Amino acid sequence: MSKVTNKEKDKALQAFYLHTDKKVSDDIMAILYSDGYIEKLTSVNGSVIRITNKGKAFYLEGGYAGKERRAKKK
Question: How many C-beta atoms lie closer than 10 Å to residue 64's C-beta?
């Protein structure tokens, strides 16, 4: 897995938040999924990946870059 920046993760989270059809890399999706910010729903009709409520709140609080800024302030 390559080094993924906070800005790249925030852009991917923004794509899910705004429901845009932007292509997100598998590496970034794996990170967002493991952090609990996106989920995959499957049914007999197919599957969909969507942002969770936790992901929406995290995005609105500034995302990964905002988290890093808050950590530096302390």
Answer: 22
Asked whether the beta carbons of 2 and 9 are under 8 A apart, the reply is no
- Tens digit of each residue's pLDDT (9 = 90 or more) over 2-47: 689 999 999 999 999 999 888 999 999 999 999 999 999 999 999 9
Note whether 27 and 4 are within 8 A (CB): yes
The single residue listed with the structure tokens 């530096």 is 72
Report in angstroms the alpha-carbon separations of 36 from 30, 44, 73, 74.
Answer: 10, 24, 25, 25
User: 43 is written with which tokens?
Assistant: 């049914």
